[in-house]
Structures are given as structure tokens and as C-alpha cells.
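Worked example 2:
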Amino acid sequence: MTQVGVIGAGIAGMAVAARLQARGISTQVFEAHGKIGGCAGYFRRQGFSFDVGATTLVDFEPGGVGDELLTAIGMTPPPGEALPGYMAWLPDRTVTLHRDPARWSAERLARLGDSEGHRRFWALIDRLASAFWVASRKGIRLPIQSVHDVLHNLGALGLAQLPLARYLTWTMGDALRHFGLRECQPLCALLSMLIEDTVHGTLDRAPLINAALGITIRGAGLTRAAGGMRGFWEAFAAHYRGLGGDIRVNHRVTRISGRKGAFVIHTTRGDFQADQVVCTLPVELTQAIAPDAVGRALRRKAERDASARGGALITFLGVPEEEVSGQAFTHHQLLQSYDQPLGNGNNMFISVSAAGDTVSAPEGCRAVMISTHCALEDWEGLDDQQYAMQQRAAGERLTGFARRVYPRLGEQAVVCETGTPRTYARFAGRPRGAVGGVRQTLWNSNQFAIPHDIGVPGFILAGDSTFPGLGTVAGVLGSRIAADKILAGI
């Protein structure tokens, strides 16, 4: 009997399985799709490899959350490109989000405002981000469920930073109003873009502390692995299997029955036994397949978060090298209008594979991913013809907007495809095609988040349904919490 069955081979599932396997706990990972990676995965087409969600690894530098994972499992960091930053293209200006703190400090004042209010605002953001990145790297545990969690978090945050806890009830909008900056259009627009991409919230609803982390991921370090997410996952899977771990792709889990010490994982390719289970699927899927006690434990929070989910559109282009030449950076974020809602191209991210990366693209070509957020409702109730027309129009719109950065983009594309919520529903099994976790507010995150331990012995949660909801960072941090809880239960 396997000691731990892990449901879902995304970043959280693979990370928790590797952690446990490195500690001598036998694990099996069950993945419905043919490839691992989940919403941080990839697909291949005509010699190109495209990232389907996350295009960079966050905080995998020495001392970071990702570095802690690799150290814990004894894995050498895969080769990659440490991004020096990226460009934000606002309607009336550009802002370079430098990785270097000193250069970023000077840039934001020069491009977004240099009043006393601006300086005091950034001082608060820097202090919050510094304290809570350190706490995250030390494995802060939220929501707090025990006295042990309280003591652990005190150690992670440090007594000197305890006064910052008063900001747990603030939103980013509250902080902007406090410093008289809520009507500063360029600043608020850039912050809105960064917050939507990381905590999927808005200025006036996103918790300040979570948003402060989200808008500073550039400083935490962005790395694009050689070969993109394909390169990362091939290296990670090889290391996990070298530890003795077992990955079962094309094994969709239909039901989990039993109890701690005697779980049965029912899949489309047979039944498997496990002493304990870690489920990294979205909460709706977890409810559908888990024992009744799990469904009851999740019901209220699942109902609360049902309307707080969103989707994504991604256009994938395989293009000749010359179509993306002439830019110092390979990553760009664009806002088309200050006056229109975010999403559907108004706030989109362009990620281009590195020159010479022949795993991502054939020689002389580059892989390009253009992504934006969208409402799930926009893609529901369409017949096949309506869907095809809307999908094609979305791809043309995103490519057209991206020509502000790369004027010739897509003229001679070898590959041109657009993924929608329907794509995520089909290939990643996401209910309604929702991705990225819930839109964070003061009332569904931190102490109000879905916990990893829901009170069902031997059944632990991880992934973007649980705290803290910052993409790959959340998955990696959550894997540490989940693994610790599994180890404590053995």
C-alpha cells in the first residue's frame, strides 16, 4: 500500500509528493491529463513548446520559497534565465519593473509620482513586502488552527514585525486613500494590473498584505527555465522518479473512499490504496470525489467562493525570430485603456522564450504566450459556431494589442492558437474553466482561507484553493505546509 496518494500533478501536487518521497514516504501522484504541470504546465505543437499558464518560476533564487523546495528534495536548480525585470506599457507611458530594488525605487518615483504621499506609500509597501516575504520563506501557516501555528508564525514573522498585523484589515485601496493617492491614475492602474495577476483581486477588495506580496514578485525574482515549463517539469519529474516516486498520468480520479489508513483511490484505470491522501484539485472537484466528510467540511467555504472565480485567455504564437527582435526585455505587461475594466486584453502579459532556447522553439524561431483575464460567463452558453468565432476574435484582439511592443508579431506565424476557459475545462478539468484560485478579499483569505487540514483524518488539501493564492509561490509554500501535516500524522 502506498503511504500517500497525491491527487493532481500541478505545482502543489508534485511539490508535496517530492517532499514526502525525499523523506522516505512512498507516494503516488494521479493526474487526469497526459502531462504533469496542471495550470503551470505546457503543450507541444510543431516543434514549439508553449506554457499554458505560469511562464516563470517565482522566488526560486537562493533563500527563496522555490529554493527551499529544491533544497528539501535534493534537486539541483534547472538552468534558466533570471529575468532582470519587465516592461509595463500604460496608455501614456512605460514603466520598467526592475528586479534591482534601487533601480525600481528610482523608476517608480520618476514614472508614477514623487510626492510625499508617494514616498510614504512605497515605504509602507516595501516594509510589508519585506516582512511577509521573509515570513513566507519561513513557511508561515494560515489560517491559524492551533497554538503551535501561532508560535510558528511568531517565529516566522518576528516580534519586531508584529505591529504590521494591524494592516490585516486594510485593503490596497485603504492604503492608497490613507496617503491621498486613490485618484492617482497611472499608479492605481499599474497596481491594479499587478494585483489582478497575482491575487486576482481589485484595489478596493484585495487584502493589503497579500497585494503587497503580489506587486513585489518582480523583486522576489522571476526565472524562466530553459525550455520554459516543459524544461522545468521534465527535470522535476526525473528527479522525483529518481527518489522512487510514481506518477500515474491519464489516471482521472473518480472517487476516493475509505478512511485514514485505508483510503481507496478509484481511477479510470483501476483502484489504488493509500494510508493518507493529499488532494490538490479545485475545491469543487474535491467535493465531488472525496468522502462525504470532506464535502461537508468544505461546503460553506465552497459556497462562499463560488462567485469569486475567473478565467483566462491565452494566445500561443510560434513565430520567426525577427518578429520579436528589438526589445531589451522578453516579458511585457500592457494596459490599453485607463477607463475600461481590466480583462479581455486590457491588462495582458506577453512572455517570449529566450533567444537560443531550442527546447521552446525551433532554431530561428521563438514561442510567444499572450495572456489576459476574462469572465467565465462570457464563454458559457455558446454553440460551436459562436464559440469558434469568439475564440478567433479573442486571438486576433490579443495579437493586435501585442503589436504595440512587437509591430510585426504574427505576420508569419507557424503556430497560432488561443486557449479559453473551455480549453481549461477540457484539458485541465477545471470547473467552468476557472483558473488561479479565488479573487482574494479580506473575507476569503488569510485567517478566512480554506485550510490545508479540514479536520478529516488523513485527508489534506493543497493547491490554489487554499492559502495564499499567489500562483506558483502558493503551490510551493502550500506543499511545505501539507507535507508537514502528513508527516505529523504518520
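The two ends are 14 Å apart (CA to CA). The domain at 2-42+62-79+227-306+438-488 is CATH 3.50.50.60 (FAD/NAD(P)-binding domain).
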